[in-house]
Design brief:
- This protein is of the alpha+beta class.
- It has a two-stranded antiparallel sheet.
- The longest helix is centred in the N-terminal third of the chain and has 9 residues.
- The N and C termini lie far apart (78 Å).
């Protein structure tokens, strides 16, 4: 479909895209753009609890980390 037709029939093209079709728009017979359905972007913010059971936190998640930074390779004198 050329640019002029696309501008004239934008509503119809959007209906086709919503139905799952890809629409290619051309200028002088050369494809320059593709309209495709948006997947997953229109959902907005996920509702609270959507990840319930998918994430777990260890009982010691807030334990001190001091021992992680002590190195036995380079003893301090």
């Amino acid at each position: 479909m050329n640019v002029h037709e696309a501008k004239t029939h934008l509503s119809r093209l959007l209906q086709q895209v919503e139905a799952g079709q890809d629409v290619v728009i051309a200028r002088a017979g050369v494809p320059i753009a593709r309209m495709v359905p948006c997947r997953g972007a229109a959902g907005g913010i996920a509702p609270p609890g959507v990840l319930s059971g998918a994430i777990s936190v260890s009982d010691d998640f807030d334990a001190p980390l001091d021992d992680l930074f002590v190195s036995n390779r380079f003893p301090v004198h």
